[in-house]
Amino acid sequence: MSINLSLLPPGEKNKIELDKQASFLVWKMKQAKAGPDDITATFTKIRDEQEQAWFQQSVDKYKKMMGVA
Asked: The pTM is what?
């Protein structure tokens, strides 16, 4: 079954984007190409508290998955 992501509501699209950003930042940390300050900078750019919480949950999830402290 395929899902057309462009048909999702804007809030769901944004959650997917935040999850992708979290994954990429944690991957960069694992590769020693970024530090915790990069995650903090991205976090502070997010205005909505629910989106901040979602981003932080995604960061924590990917840190656990990738073994990043």
From this structure: 0.90
